[in-house]
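Margin note: ligand = 2-acetamido-2-deoxy-beta-D-glucopyranose.
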Amino acid sequence: MAAHASIKSMALCLVMTMCLVISSVAELQRFDHPANDDGSLSFLVIGDWGRRGTYNQSEVAVQMGRVGEKLNINFVISVGDNFYDNGLTGENDPNFEESFTKVYTAKSLQKQWYSVLGNHDYRGNVKAQLSPVLKQKDSRWLCLRSFVVNAGIVEFFFVDTNPFVDMYFYDPKDHIYDWRGVLPRKKYIANLLRDVDTALSQSTATWKIVVGHHAIRSVGHHGDTKELVEKFLPILQRNNVDLYMNGHDHCLEHISSLSRWTGSKQLYSAI
Ligand SMILES: *[C@@H]1O[C@H](CO)[C@@H](O)[C@H](O)[C@H]1NC(C)=O
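Resulting structure:
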């Protein structure tokens, strides 16, 4: 009996330990980024950019440098599609230097960059783009699938929106997506939604900003991302997220849901 009981409790112990390990692995990685001494924060957001300087990327980079100087930015956010057309081929792909290091050369842009992945990045070697080796090549670079940055007045929730999009799985055309680390998809999405929900609900920041590659709503070329409207938007709404920032549609839009703007917080002055 005693032996039985102890085996049972050992088994229970093991199960609990496994659960603990699994849940701690699934939690979103967190970073702290200090705000300015007066509590303020400023940053630039860019997406859909890595073209080895062409398509006016270099011209935009110069203007970013000027604005970044004027605002004395704390960091830069990239909302994905970091390297066209097909992400990076490996850690040593020269596209990294040609599209990033050698383009964003202005002094004001020599800050931390926080990046998520876009669909074009998934057409290359995703693990290379996430690799710490890139940080050795350019110390500004940080790209992860999903993570949290606590910057005092604002908490940023970076979310990889690519696994949500059905088309990339069921109708990928002639593209090959690198889903290593994302499968099985259903489980991956369920864990991600749970982790984002938990992180948002635990946040005490004045502003909660979510960052992803795909638009939830858009009047642009790709339109709404219905999978995000169905599965992701309710979590953002439930947790009173103030702002969602994305790329993908190559179209400047500012969409507001009026019910969110009845409080005392005002973001319009900041935009
Ligand atoms: C670069 O910008 C100029 C001026 O806005 C525009 O006329 C031109 O089409 C752009 N070039 C590309 C390749 O997008």
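The CA atoms of residues 209 and 243 lie 5 Å apart.
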